[in-house]
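Ligand-bound model needed. dihydroflavine-adenine dinucleotide.
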Amino acid sequence: MPSPDENEASPRDRISATPLFRKIILNATNNTFVAKGVRRYGMRLGASRFVAGETLDEAVISLRALNGLGLKCNTTILGEGVHDEATANRVVADYITVLDRITSEGLNVNVALKLTHLGLDLGEETAYRNVEKLVNHAASLGNFIRIDMEESARVDATIRIYRRLQAAGHDNTGTVLQSYLFRTEQDLTGLLPINPNLRFVKGAYLESPEIAFAKKSDVDANYVKLVERSLQAGGFTAVATHDVKIIKHVIAFAEQNGIGKERFQFQMLYGISTQLQRELAGRGFSVLIATPYGPDWYFYLMRRLAERPANTLFFAKSLFKR
Ligand code: FDA
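Prediction:
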């Protein structure tokens, strides 16, 4: 089945989702009927464009191929919102397996994970203990762990855990800041003194206008402001966006300010803007592809559908045609 590759899409298809569109799709995520249909047919009808398979073996094939194209990767076992200790422990054990496999395969791949997958909802101590175990194991293998940023209710705990890891001397970690939140500028100010490793994203969750910019142009403007500050401050900056205008701006900004290519990295999602990923790597920029896998892909897929109307249209058409 052909996929709606953005490089072949019509200009109309290239438009980003409006806040209202995102709201409708993200609200539908919790609808039982939608969840049942998408879970049942999703992988066959399009999820595989965004997810590198359901097993580690499948993911390794994609990771190896991406590395072969000169692209670095991170991988994530899909899943979030774990509410019992046994599952959280199993996720930790699975990530240990992933880290070991990355090493034995000689892959240029690190790990990005979600704290609610490691049991944040069971308590901050549980999440800290679990993530520290993985950070220690990654360090023993010379690898790196990034902590993704989830909904706004998790931001305080995520930043606290990241700071605690840094204070304990774990320098093989990084986290994520979201430009749609009003608070992020302050969060960045607070983090800059510890020379952080930060990935900047626009933000993928449904947030209220009381705490997040409602207009896309404001989210974009804040994104540029935050990245410029981070680049000037001297830590490592991961510019995680497919927004060509912003990418061009960052390249020009880095050149004008004498910021070396080793100080920042472009990051994109598996299956999105693939031509752009290769073009940037070909020009000598560091490019990392976030390459998730696992059977628990439903919420991840719904966030990708919410980001682009053309994806949703394609997915809905395939669902009805099946
Ligand atoms: P924008 O939405 O403005 O899109 C710009 C262009 O990119 C579009 O016009 C289209 O061409 C293309 N595009 C964007 N999304 C697409 C899609 N789904 N399908 C096809 N084309 C698409 N969020 C978060 O809250 N916490 C996190 O930890 C992360 N982590 C993360 C890691 C990495 C490596 C990336 C790239 C992104 C994230 N995100 C995230 C997701 C992020 O918040 C955001 O939702 C998406 O990156 C989409 O926004 P853009 O910056 O691409 O811009």
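The chain has a mean pLDDT of 92.
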